[in-house]
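I hope you will forgive my troubling you with a question about protein structure. Here, with my thanks, is the record as I have it:
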Amino acid sequence: MTIDSHTPLPNIAFLGTGIMGLPMAVRLCGAGYAPQVWNRTAHKAAPLAALGATVHAYADAAAASADIVISMLESGPAVKDVLFAHGVATAMKPGALFLDMASIQPREARDHAARLGALGVSHLDAPVSGGPGGAESGTLAIMAGGKADDFARALPVLRHFGRATHVGPHGSGQLAKLANQMIVGITIGAVAEALLFTSRGGADMAKVREAITGGFADSRVLHLHGQRMLERDFAPRARMDIQLKDMRNALATAQEIGFEAPITALFEQLYAEGVDHGLTDLDQSALFVELASRNGMS
């Protein structure tokens, strides 16, 4: 995205420079921003200093002068802790925007929005899909919940990360992300089970995957995760335990809104058993390993 040199850039703070946050903050630096950054493990933020960022030891110090504070933290409790225990909420200027790009429960996002609103601070929940590769290339899918004018305000910044869509009021971004994770987690299981089924019957899994590519069963999961299954490449991109967390968040939210989700419930059990069997730190595509073991094909 080309920045108009006559338009002053907002002052950005970026909290959380882990596997997703670091490449996103790098993109901001490359776009001409000089973000104020913080990470709980300080050395993970250190490389950004050479790119023009200011690295802070404390989250509230990073947020104090920011027009927009971006959060890319690991969980709802972590976001709550940084906001209300580490003092970010009270350090932010009245009228500033807290842009939470972490994947948390919708009810947590709504609670954070209400508490920040009482302090005169705006809020958007804007979780992402696309993984570290999407963060590096700026091709993330971004699902935003909150007020339309706050989304419009954030959009010039969000465009550096990928394609953003405003999907509804506070918490709606998190609902969309849970829907995304339900589809991804269930589809990984469908691909794994189908490939193992063909192998048990005597077919070549790689050739089956090739044969169905381009048909109605085609998907990015078939392409990317299917290839990882064929290669037995389960190095973590999105870990099994993170996928399990997302399925459990989806089920918790379904219970809150009175929605029955039997398919998600089944796959929550399968991912949980995979984690119990030692697959915790492997890629989510390692559900293949759990299904193979059940069929004596490990």
Q: What stands out?
A: The beta strands are 12-15, 36-38, 54-55, 68-71, 97-100, 122-125, 128-129, 140-145, 162-168. The chain is about 50% helix and 10% strand.
